[in-house]
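Anyone up for a design puzzle?
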């Protein structure tokens, strides 16, 4: 459950009524988590607490968004909460994988917190294995969305205006019975479970995801966060889909050695 930071007098308020909760699924390529990194770093969001749970592998590390030596030694754990009241945005960043058979308890705890904190809606950033797409999913953009019935009433028209593609359902028994369709998100981690639970509990949730493969998934993260920005307009003006080239998204310090030291300039 949520545990606020102990900041003493003048601490940041942890009231989230009417806020949008943005969070990642631990999914293929860690694309959602990388996209969340870009949001937190770019908007300079304030850490307001932690999400205490035994459903995630324990971990601790240095501040991933350090901007100076003074704050580089601050510690971070596996699930932390950041807030930006001016945009009514709260972000839950997850940094470690789930413990086996702990998906459902985590979803139940999370959705209970969403209701108790009175968040207006939840947006889940996720990904799915590109190689497991069916023929219909191979067409057009690799980006997809899902919305629960309760959120569909509020934003369904906007999704149509943005010309977004809804995640297609696939045959439950390919080659045997192609008429029965089911939602299938291979490599999506908690995505399907969290979405279906939100549908049944009347919670307003949207899933934004990208088909991708494991590797250097930084370009996928930029594509997904730009997709999110089309809707929420977190940053204004033109944004580049190509990493490191005139992008307005701020690269967090923790990405510096994400894929090693890189090639020496002399080789270029």
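Challenge accepted. My sequence:
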């Amino acid at each position: 459950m949520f545990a606020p930071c102990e900041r003493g007098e003048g601490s940041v308020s942890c009231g989230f009524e009417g806020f949008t909760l943005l969070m990642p699924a631990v999914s293929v390529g860690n694309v959602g988590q990388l996209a969340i990194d870009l949001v937190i770093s770019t908007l300079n969001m304030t850490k307001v607490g932690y999400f205490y749970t035994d459903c995630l592998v324990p971990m601790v590390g240095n501040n991933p968004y350090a901007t100076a030596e003074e704050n580089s030694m601050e510690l971070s754990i596996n699930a932390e909460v950041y807030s930006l009241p001016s945009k009514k945005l709260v972000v839950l960043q997850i940094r470690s994988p789930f413990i086996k058979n702990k998906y459902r308890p985590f979803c139940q705890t999370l959705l209970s917190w969403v209701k108790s904190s009175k968040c207006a809606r939840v947006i889940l950033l996720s990904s799915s294995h590109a190689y497991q797409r069916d023929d219909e999913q191979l067409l057009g953009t690799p980006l997809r969305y899902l919305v629960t019935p309760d959120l569909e009433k509020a934003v369904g028209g906007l999704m149509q205006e943005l010309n977004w593609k809804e995640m297609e359902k696939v045959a439950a028994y390919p080659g045997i019975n192609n008429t029965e369709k089911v939602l299938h998100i291979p490599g999506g981690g908690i995505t399907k479970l969290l979405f279906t639970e939100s549908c049944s509990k009347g919670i307003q949730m949207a899933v934004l995801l990208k088909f991708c493969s494991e590797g250097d998934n930084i370009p996928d993260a930029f594509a997904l966060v730009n997709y999110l920005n089309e809707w929420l307009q977190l940053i204004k003006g033109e944004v580049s889909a190509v990493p490191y080239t005139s992008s307005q998204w701020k690269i967090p310090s923790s990405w510096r050695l994400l894929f090693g030291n890189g090639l020496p300039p002399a080789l270029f």
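A detail worth pointing out: The longest strand covers residues 121-129.
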